[in-house]
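Proteins fold reproducibly. Consider a sample protein:
=====
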Amino acid sequence: MRGRMGTQGSPVKSYDYLLKFLLVGDSDVGKGEILESLQDGASESPYAYSNGIDYKTTTILLDGRRVKLELWDTSGQGRFCTIFRSYSRGAQGILLVYDITNRWSFDGIDRWIKEIDEHAPGVPRILVGNRLHLAFKRQVPTEQARSYAEKNCMTFFEVSPLCNFNVIESFTELSRIVLMRHGMEKIWRPNRVFSLQDLCCRAIVSCTPVHLIDKLPLPVTIKSHLKSFSMANGMNAVMMHGRSYSLASSGGGSSSKGNSLKRSKSIRPPQSPPQNCSRSNCKIS
């Protein structure tokens, strides 16, 4: 495990988590292109024997934590299947890669899933359709690949190393799945870095009851997102402030005051003593 030296001479790791991922799929589907698109990290295998295996490291930022990934590209040729079986030991995530312009490579995913189930059962995996920049030559429809991924309980991405599209996102999502599976989310949750959108939603929902979100002068899509955010995070204004609110029905002639927000528990103002009180202690000094 690589690291750097701190100011006091003690080793300080340059990452918070270390994960080992495998890229599997038939030959010439562009697994090497995905690794070459990653600019940072080392490309030399830590092991002397690396015939048929490409190696690359990269570091991503996941919710404020640094996750170092060791990426192993196993060759899709049949003579290297034994190498895959060896390197699959200790793997924590697998990317099943196919070429969207090659129907045969997509049909071969079934064979790789059988290999994974036999030699790396239970390891999280995602389906990756490579070479999206060649969509005009597409032979595998997006919807078919997505339904196939859902059938096999996998997340689906279409990526393009040439355009740098969805490559880091696919690694980030697989890292999130792996860490959540191992219960690591509880560790980084207190230090989670919220996006600007999350902070805005949190500020609005914390002071607005759920049933009043529809009254806000916002687009329908944003109001729907606020409701989802409120339900997902349990941030109801009733729980946040310990108050209960109700909508006052518009009655009588005071239609201008319509549906206004008021507290159900009214606070009475202090009453003055009656004018005809004869007792001396009732007089106001």
